[in-house]
Every structure is written in C-alpha cells, then in structure tokens.
DNA sequence: ATTATCTATAGATCTATAGATAATGC
DNA sequence: ATTATCTATAGATCTATAGATAATGC
C-alpha cells in the first residue's frame, strides 16, 4: 500500500541531526549512495593527505574507490563536492571520537581538564586530517565552506559549554561571555597547533608532555 | 683591472644575512634579477591570495608582473620557485615590520607585553599573507619548505628570547627551557589565530579587544 | 658577442559528460 | 523499464622550452 503522496522518505530519523550540505546524486538508492560515498571519502582522504587536493585527479579518486570515473560522477557533481564530503567526514569522525570519550561528571573544571586531554589525543590521532582541513578549506565553494566552518564552531562550542559550567559551579573563576568564547577557541587551536607545528614541537615534546604543559597553562589561568 | 680569479662576487655584504635558498636564474645582472623577482613576487602574492597557488597560472603571473611567460622562466625554474619567493618575501616583510617597531627597553616582561601587541598588529595587517603561508607551504618542494619553516622558527625565537630575558631579570616567574619554547610558539600561534579564525573572531572582537584579552591571559600566566 | 625578452607551441594532462552496456525488478 | 556502471572522448587548459628577435656593450 503506497502512500498517496510520494512523501520524500518520511525523515527516517537519521543518526546525525548535523546540518549538512545536500550533495545531489543521480543514484536513487540512498543506501547505495551512502556506501559509495563512504568509499569515495576513504579513498580521497588518503590521496589528499599524500598529494593534496589539487594534485589528486578525479580518475585517481575513482580508481582508489574501486570504480570508474563515470561512476564517480553519479555520486558527486564536481571534484569540489568530494572535498566537501571529505571535510565533513573528518569533522564527524572528530566529533564522534570526542563524544565517545568525554566525561561530563565532576566539576566544570574537572570535566574541562579531562576534555582537553581527550581532545589533544584525538588531534594527535587525526593529525593529517586536521592539517588537511587547515590547508584545503579555502578550495571549497563558498556554500560548502560555510558548512565546514560552522562544524568547526560546533566543536569549539564543546569547550565553551564546559567553561560555562565551570564558571556556574564556581570551579573556575568568573569569566564573561567573551572570555569564555575566546578561551574555547584557544583550546581548539592549541590542540590543532600540535598538528600544524608538529615539525617544531614533536622533536622537543611528547604528546603527554605537550598536553600536560598546555593543560596546566590553561587551567592555571582559569582557577 | 680584472681580478685574476673570476671570484664569484666577493660577497657584497648583502643586507640580509638570512639563510635563503638560491633560486637559479639565466640572467647575469644581479640587480635586474632582484628587480624582476620583486615584480614577480608582488604580482604573485596578490594572485595567490585571490585564487590560491594552484589555480593561478604561470601566464597570469607573468602578465601581472608585466612581462611574458618566457621571461618569467628566465628568473625562476618552476612555478614552485615563485611560491618559495613569495613565502620568503612574506616572512622577510613580517620580520622587518616587527624589528622596526619592537622596543627592547624595560624589563623582559614589559618588552614581551609590548612585543605581543606589535606582533598581533602586524598579523592583522598581514592577515592574507599569513593565511597564504598556512595554506600553501605544503605545496613547496621539500628543500624550499625547510627554509620556510626555519624562517618561521626564527620569528618564534624572538618571543623565546624575550621570555628568557624576563625570567633572567625576575620580571617573569621561573620557567624552564621547554616552557619558554612552548610559550613562544603559543604566542606566535595566537597571533596567527587572529587571521585563520577571523571568520569566528572578527564578528565578536576588535583587534584591540582580542589583543588585550590574549595579552592578559599570557602575562597573567607568566607573572 | 652577449644578454634579455618575446612568440609560438610541444607535450601532457584533467574535468566532466555522452552514449553504450550490464544488471535488476516488474 | 529502470537503475547503475563503464568506456571513450570532447574540450579546455597549463607548464615549460626552443628558437627568433631586439637591445646593449666591446
């Protein structure tokens, strides 16, 4: 019994409520689209890390994904679409690894301290991916870029929330909205710094040393 | 009266003792090489900022510099050479603007505080250029990249020196070598952050507010 | 003669699509 | 019939160089 109105798939309650850009496809089967795009992203991430976006050809992507150039273009409309899918996948992976491991028990200060440690560890694991986003975001079409930057802000907001909690429960000293937002960005960037200044930092510090120093700097300032 | 040995130009004491990569050229007149390369760099910087390195063609660079594609290749051996010249010029400009304005009088802490303000202001002036380095350094050949990263470290070392002075004259609290180096990188990156997170920061903070907040965070932690 | 510059183009790609083919479901 | 995939290629560039030309100095 078909519904009277074709009803464009009654919102099958996808896992992610993340606002994401809809990339058009010629293929009807949504499951297949998801599967093929996963293949495309997995292949493209590796290629982009190795050679960069511009030096990777659409043919290489298709081949590494396991199908032909023609098929690739059934699932995306342009090379830039692949870059967007890659950036989005990286941010989702990042967010998922964080949410898996973040503990929200204890005071705001304690939760923040733990979050910094987890975040830095995830940054270390995903070094190449974070670097990729720093280097290639500029190559995205404006519209796609907006989504990627918004995603970046959502990740930053995790720290702002914890900072707010710490202020509310008096485990951190009083901070106004501006100070909280700035410090949230600082924490995010100091995690990223471990990846984009690796050439200077890794010879001098282990991840553990780096995390410990930065964490005590940040918390020392806030308590 | 010619020297007996052709003596490859007896080191005419160039202004910059900066270690820099020698880009080979077909043209003999060193002054002309400097002049043309300045034209190339000035043209290329603008193009790279607008469209990125990969989307800029060698023809566009030559045309914007005011000569033909053939002439361009008398002064560089490859497109990547132009990128190296651009990165180097940006770093030199950065360094020069800093050195012009840095005051080294007073305590280490006072000099550091002033240096942060100057540095952030220069970062603001050279936003696009700093962003360019973050985005395109990866496209440099390995050898050129080494020089560019070394230059970046020399700039960072300015802050490390001031921190060391502050520790020595007790205007800052005691810090070991690792803490000094890390803090120097933090200062550099927080300046750059104003450029690469401009999309999030500029709507909320003026440069003055941003500088004041970051400076008091940094110095609050160190005193 | 030597140096600097220009024009013309070799040679190599690369993105995106059209149209053919294979597979699937009515 | 419809959907997914593949092959072949149109059409558009782009880097780098070879060889010709103009300008400069002995």
Search tags:
DNA-binding; Arc Repressor Mutant, subunit A; 2 domains; homodimer; 223 residues; mainly alpha
Describe this structure in words.
- Two copies of one chain form a homodimer.
- By secondary structure, chain A is an all-alpha fold.
- Helices cover 70% and strands 0% of the residues of chain A.
- Chain A contains ten helices and no strands.
- In chain A, helix 2 (58-65) packs across helix 3 (69-75) and helix 5 packs parallel to helix 8 (177-196).
- The longest helix of chain A has 27 residues, at 142-168.
- The radius of gyration of chain A is 20 Å and the shape is elongated.
- The model of chain A is unreliable at 1-16 (pLDDT under 50).
- At the A-B interface, helix 6, helix 7, helix 8, helix 9 and helix 10 of A face helix 6, helix 7, helix 8, helix 9 and helix 10 of B.
Looking at this structure, what is the CATH superfamily of the largest domain in chain A? Tetracycline Repressor, domain 2
Count of domains of chain A: 2
Number of helices of chain A: 10
Return the CATH architecture of the largest domain in chain A.
Orthogonal Bundle
Query: How would you name the oligomeric state of the polypeptide chains in this document?
Result: homodimer
Question: How many strand elements of chain A?
Answer: 0
Proportion in β-strands of chain A: under 5%
Largest sheet of chain A: none
